[in-house]
């Protein structure tokens, strides 16, 4: 990651490469590695067998037998990202193997120490985040370009669908990310024609993101997502199932608390909000800003650079250009529609799925085994997102404040 030194001489070049962004893949890690050096074979062996080890309740015993490996043999960003992906998935499986009622208070040293070291090297927290789950967790399955995940958890095809549809949303955002760069430069250069074109491209990209997000309905079973997958995305901050947090043995004697994976950790929407000057409520803003700590530092720096740019909204307002105003409002409207689409999906996959799971559990035979592999619905985060936010009040508030960002004629 390059520092921000010298940005005063070159106010806002916003070159994507400065922020580890790809022209083709945006925030996605381009062509992630799928294997670590042989030294890390014990990690990879467990990681590739996670669904079976978790559902048979043998992951914890396997982790206890795992050697403590030094991270000094890891070379370069790609190896570090794969190591973080692998260790984060093993950690989530270890924590939630027995469901909400069988959590542990300590992450063993042989897992905690290397996970902490890799996290420190990348500037990421030692927990599964969007940067692992989606951005670094994809590979080409065949020459036709069909995609697959690198590491998995229980949930089968629904988990695979959940990850890959989210990945397609990130991929659909790429023209919009490029449009941000064009828009910022156009404002600086007072080039209204380029700005108008950039805003049209941004609105189109956000529309394509909504289309990609709707594919969730085709590939993810709500019952599997709610009862099996969701718990493995849960963190140990603002989670009643782990109120004290987690001790990372060999790192700290005091427990630490981290939020679980959340769509709010995707840099894309933060970048769009900053460009369009969308202002959310104090509570929503506080949560969103906390989620920025779960992004790779260069991606976070990209959002901060947009924030420092001259206000696009003020520029459009002062231009008095009806076409520019309409193009700006089209972007805001597309973003609000995307957030409405997200609310629809959360309703189906959490609220409706929770009601169905409860009804099903009510008719189940007593004495069944608890835990995710038995499909016992998790209750600790019923009204919250896996990131710890009060999910519906947050999503509706953010959608509504987005709508308020339009410019009045």
Automatic annotation (TrEMBL):
One of its GO terms (cellular component) is cytoplasm. One of its GO terms (molecular function) is indoleamine 2,3-dioxygenase activity. InterPro entries: Indolamine_dOase, Trp/Indoleamine_2_3_dOase-like. Transmembrane segments: none annotated. Residues 362-387 are annotated as: Disordered. Gene3D superfamilies: 1.20.58.480. Heme b binds at residue 342. Belongs to the indoleamine 2,3-dioxygenase family. This is I23O2 dioxygenase. It comes from Himantopus himantopus (Black-winged stilt). The gene is Ido2.
């Amino acid at each position: 990651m390059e520092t921000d030194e010298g940005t005063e001489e070159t106010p806002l070049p916003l070159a994507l490469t400065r922020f580890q962004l790809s022209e083709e893949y945006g925030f996605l890690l381009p062509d992630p590695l799928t294997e670590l050096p042989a030294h890390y074979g014990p990690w990879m062996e467990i990681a590739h067998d996670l669904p079976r080890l978790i559902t048979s309740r043998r992951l914890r015993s396997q982790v206890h037998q795992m050697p403590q490996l030094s991270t000094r043999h890891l070379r370069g960003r790609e190896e570090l990202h794969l190591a973080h992906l692998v260790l984060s998935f093993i950690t989530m499986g270890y924590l939630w193997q027995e469901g909400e009622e069988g959590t542990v208070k300590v992450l063993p040293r042989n897992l905690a120490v290397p996970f902490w070291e890799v996290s420190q090297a990348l500037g990421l927290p030692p927990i599964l985040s969007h940067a692992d789950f989606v951005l670094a967790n994809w590979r080409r399955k065949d020459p036709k370009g069909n995609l697959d995940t690198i590491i998995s958890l229980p949930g089968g095809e629904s988990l695979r669908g959940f990850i890959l549809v989210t990945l397609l949303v990130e991929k659909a955002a790429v023209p919009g990310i490029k449009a941000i760069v064009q828009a910022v430069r156009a404002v600086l250069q007072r080039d209204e024609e380029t700005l108008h074109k950039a805003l049209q491209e941004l609105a189109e990209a956000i529309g394509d993101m909504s289309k990609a997000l709707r594919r969730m309905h085709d590939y993810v079973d709500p019952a599997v997502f709610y009862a099996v997958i969701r718990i493995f995305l849960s963190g140990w901050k603002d989670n009643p199932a782990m109120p004290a947090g987690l001790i990372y043995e060999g790192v700290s004697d005091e427990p630490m608390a981290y939020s679980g994976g959340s769509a709010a950790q995707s840099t894309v929407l933060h970048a769009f909000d900053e460009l369009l000057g969308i202002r959310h409520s104090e509570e929503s803003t506080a949560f969103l800003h906390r989620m920025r700590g779960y992004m790779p530092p260069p991606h976070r720096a990209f959002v901060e650079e947009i924030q420092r740019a001259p206000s696009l909204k003020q520029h459009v307002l002062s231009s008095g250009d009806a076409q520019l105003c309409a193009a700006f409002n089209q972007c805001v409207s597309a973003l609000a529609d995307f957030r409405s689409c997200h609310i629809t999906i959360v309703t189906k996959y959490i609220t409706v799925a929770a009601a169905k799971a409860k009804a099903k559990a009510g008719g189940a035979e007593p004495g069944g085994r608890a835990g995710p592999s038995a499909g016992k619905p998790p209750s600790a985060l019923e009204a919250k997102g896996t990131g710890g936010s009060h999910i519906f009040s947050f999503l509706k508030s953010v959608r509504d404040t987005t709508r308020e960002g339009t410019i009045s004629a």
